[in-house]
Each structure stands twice: as structure tokens, then as C-alpha cells.
Amino acid sequence: MAAVAAEDSELDVDALRREAETLRSRLEEERRKSNDVQLRDVASKLEQVPSLQMKVRRVLKGHQGKVLAMDWSTDKRRLVSSSQDGKVIVWDAFANKQERVLSMPTTWIMSCAFAPTGDIIACGGLDNKCTVFPIDKDMENPERKKRTIAMHTSYMSCCRFVKSDYQILTCSGDCTCALWDVDSSQLMQSFHGHISDVLCLDISPVHCRTFLSGSSDKTASLWDIRTGRCVHSFDGHDGDINGVKFFPTGESFVTASDDGTCRLYDLRADREVALYTKDCMIFAATCVDISKSGRLMFAGYNDYTVNVWDVLKCVRVGRIYAHDNKVTCLQRSPDGTAVCSGSWDTTLKLWA
Amino acid sequence: MISKETMHHCEADCQADLQGDCSVCALSSTAAKYRHSKMSNSIAQAHKTVDQLRFEAQIERIRVSKAAADLQAYCEQHARDDPLLVGVPASENPFKEKKSCIVL
């Protein structure tokens, strides 16, 4: 009885596997057909980027441990950073002052985020949770009012507010991403599909309906926030994808990976369209962001540097010996005037 | 001492099913249920994979030449507004020092 059922099931699984193989070959063929030209060739007639004069403008000292994450406030002047030492610091970057220092009960705060209004910050990491603190001007003791919003079954690698103070997206070492309601701490949607730790996420700059995730399974996925469905999945990298960032149009994105390369993928062409690397580059790229016009890409690496790339010509146009240890996080300010980088050397630096 | 029947007994012949244990290898019905559900899980997983691939296969794709042209057009259109690309004078960039000395 069981034997016959088992045999039938095995046949079903085989048939499905064969169909999957056929579909995969078809997809590869379609993607190959659309690859009619290289981006760098299209851009060869463009003028070169003017030589960059980036200097360190601020050094934010205050963390006692490795800086793991940072996020700018929409007011373009404050930023929040989190560290291995369990501290989360809110800085006034213009004045180089610490506005608030929050202590978390655990170490390794792998992500932190500023809410759009600037009144809340979210953070979390090895505690598998995302915690929010109110930090509006009148808040005397934020630690007393903290709340746990999200619970994962493994470390939380990244958290971001979804265009308002009311919803947070998180991604985790438990291979999932999740959308949470801040007020009720309810799970609103979960996103399954990655087969290994999800390390980074970025929300579409154009609307709040989609977001990207990058994973240890070497793929980046685009998700529909409302339905939980994976809309596109992109491979090509040979290592964990540590950073992912939408291009300003929302139709392309860049990734930074353990394989030492950054890549540009286009959603409408459904494939990788550019590769940013040099032969000597063997250190992992850990974080990436793009300038306001999309022409420049900044990436932080484990060799303590930040490299600046011409996105269109696919060449490196600058190399900043930024820190005394691995660069872990990097973000361009909201008005595009500066780039902030954070490092294991316990500092954050602003470049402009 | 294992009997000849047990040694030649294989999964296909196993009499264990959702109702009762197998008299030959003593595989219990619980284990049979587990094996059955594992099989259903792989089918469910395979269905999911095929569904996802079918969904991705019917997406309309544009050519890289068009994508590249659009990327380039956006960059050129917004180049002027990119402080990191064209640079802004120190007086306009809050992060560039304007003063040459600090009054303590």
C-alpha cells in the first residue's frame, strides 16, 4: 500500500524536477538573448568622471567596539550607529556631537535604523530581535520605553522602516525577511525563499511596494511587500551578498559580495549588466551605496578601503584609505553631499 | 541473528503503512507516516520551485542595450544635482569647513 504510494510520489517528484530543469534552461536562454551589448561599451563615449576630491570631514569617535551598522536620518544631519559593544549612538554629524547613547542588553547590534520622522530608532542583532526606542526631544529615558517589535529564530542582520514610522522590514539568519507593524508588534507578512542567511535589504526608492534582499545563498531577490511573493531572483555572485542598494530609478540595483566584486543588475532586463572588480581585489565587499545621480558607486571592503566606481564605465575612479580596520557599513547622506563609513576600528567617518 | 527475509527486505516491499507495522523489518507505522510526510514535503517543495520558475519564465524582458541607455540617460539628466559628482563649494556643503579657526 505504502510502497505503491511512495513510487507514485517519487515519479511526481521526478517529473517536477525535470520540468524545473527545462524551465531553468529556458530562463537562461531568454536571459542570454537579451544580453546584446555590454554597459561599458554603451558608456564608452561618455566623458570621464571629474577627478574626485574626497576628504575626511568628520571623525565620529565614541564607540568602544566595532561599528557594525549605521543609518542617516531624513534631516540629513543626524545619524545613528550601532556597535559590537552593545551601544547605539545618535550623532549630530554636522557638529560632531553625540546626542544620545543607548545601551542594549546584548552585544553585536548588527543593524540600526532611523524612522522617517526621526522620533524612533530601531536596532537589533544577535538577540534575534528588533527593538525600538522613542528618541523625540522630550524623551528623558528612552531605554525605559523600549519595545520589542520583531522576533526571528536567528540573528537579525538588517532592519529598515518602510517609508513611515509604522512598519519595519527585517531580515535574518533564519533565511526569512518579515514585515512588522510597529504599534502592535504584529507580523504582517513573511518572505520565504532564500535557502541561507539573509544579510541585507533595501526598499524601493520609488514606491513602497517592493524590496530587495541579499543572502548567503549568493542570490538577490526582489519581493512584493503585499503578497510576500518573490518576483525576481538574481544569481551570479560567487559569495555571500553583504550589501544591496537600488539605483535611484528603482529599476536596477547594485550588490556587494564576499567574492570581492560589486555587480549591477537590471530588473527589466532580468540579468546582471555590469561587474565592478580588478584582478588584485580579493577582499570581500561589505557595503555599497550610490551617489544621487547614480553615476558613482561607493563600496566598503575588508581591506579597510572604500572604492569609488564609475557605474556606467565600470572603472574605479577613486580609492579611499578610509579606516584602520574592515569597513562594515556605508551610506550616502539623504541630500547626497557626503558619504558616511563605519568600521571595526570603532570610528565612523564622513567624506565629502 | 537477522533472517534472510529481513536482509533482502527493501523499502518497496515494506508492508508498513499508515495502518500498521511491517511484520518483516518491524518498521513502525509512525515511521511510515514520517516517511510519507517527508515525501509530501519534497513534492510540495518541488511544486513551489516549478511554480516560481514558471512565474519567472513569463516575465517580459528588455534588452541590455535599452536598460543601459536608460541608465545613462538618468545619470546625465541628474549629474548637475549630484554634489559628490560635480562638487559643491564649501559654503554650500555643510560638511566642508568654512571657518579657518575656532573660537573657544
UniProtKB/TrEMBL annotation, chain A:
Pfam families linked to this entry: WD40_Gbeta (PF25391)
Coiled coil regions, renumbered to chain: 6-40
WD repeat boundaries on the chain: 60-101, 149-190, 191-233, 234-275, 320-352
SUPFAM superfamilies: WD40 repeat-like (SSF50978)
InterPro entries: G-protein_beta_1-5, WD40/YVTN_repeat-like_dom_sf, WD40_G-protein_beta-like, WD40_PAC1, WD40_repeat_CS, WD40_repeat_dom_sf, WD40_rpt
Keywords: Coiled coil, Repeat, Transducer, WD repeat
The UniProt record lists the keyword Repeat: yes
A GO biological-process term: signal transduction
Alphabetical list of PANTHER family matching this protein: GUANINE NUCLEOTIDE-BINDING PROTEIN BETA G PROTEIN BETA
Family as reported in the entry's similarity comment: Belongs to the WD repeat G protein beta family.
Protein name, as recorded: Guanine nucleotide-binding protein subunit beta-5-like
TrEMBL record, chain B:
GO annotation (BP), single: G protein-coupled receptor signaling pathway
A Pfam cross-reference name: G-gamma
Alphabetized InterPro entries for the sequence: G-protein_gamma, G-protein_gamma-like_dom, GGL_sf
Topology of this chain in the membrane: Lipid-anchor
Keyword terms: Cell membrane, Lipoprotein, Membrane, Methylation, Prenylation, Transducer
The G protein gamma domain, residue ranges: 39-104
CDD domains noted in UniProt: GGL
SMART domains tied to this protein: G_gamma, GGL
Subcellular location(s) of the protein: Cell membrane
A single MF term (Gene Ontology): G-protein beta-subunit binding
Highest taxon above the source species: Eukaryota
Main location: membrane
GO CC aspect terms: heterotrimeric G-protein complex
PANTHER family assigned: GUANINE NUCLEOTIDE-BINDING PROTEIN GAMMA SUBUNIT
Assembly and oligomerization: G proteins are composed of 3 units; alpha, beta and gamma.
Entry function: Guanine nucleotide-binding proteins (G proteins) are involved as a modulator or transducer in various transmembrane signaling systems. The beta and gamma chains are required for the GTPase activity, for replacement of GDP by GTP, and for G protein-effector interaction.
Family: Belongs to the G protein gamma family.
UniProt protein name: Guanine nucleotide-binding protein subunit gamma
Species this protein is from: Branchiostoma belcheri (Amphioxus)
